[in-house]
Structures are given as C-alpha cells and as structure tokens.
Design goal:
Elements lengths: L1 H36 L5 H46 L1
Helix pairs in contact: 1-2
Keywords: Membrane, Transmembrane, Transmembrane helix
Amino acid sequence: MTDRLKKYWFFLLIALIGLNYAGFHFLWESVGISDALEHVESETVIRKLKQKDFFYTLFADAVLILDFSIVLLLLFIGGRKIIQIIIKK
C-alpha cells in the first residue's frame, strides 16, 4: 500500500498544481466578468455573466479551501513527527 502511495505522490502533486492553475485562471476570469458586468445592458447577458461569475468564484474558493486543508494536514503530520522525536529522546 505504501509503495503504491509513494509511486503516485508525483501524479497527485501534478494534479494539485493543475487545480491551482485552473482556480487562479478562473479567479482572473471572474475579475474580467465583473468588469464586463458594469458595461452590459441586456438582462439576459447580465444573468449569464452572473452565473458564470458565481461558478468561477465557487471553483476558486473550493481550490483555496483544498489548499488550506492540505497545509493544515501537513502541519498536523509534521507536528506529530516532531512530538514523536521529542518523546523518544
């Protein structure tokens, strides 16, 4: 099991980098949509842009939550290792 995890950590890291890239791309697109909303007059176009902005913001927020949870997990694992080293001494 651990051999398999060691084998696929690289692919998980690449997937995480891809998710982060997509999240920040969508965040950048969301800023452009917000700027376009100021100049649009049609109600249907405004509704479509607001829906697109909502989904882009939702995806970017999900990526940020995933990033923060991974950081907290790594801090937890590192803290456990440090405590185990201190107790052994």
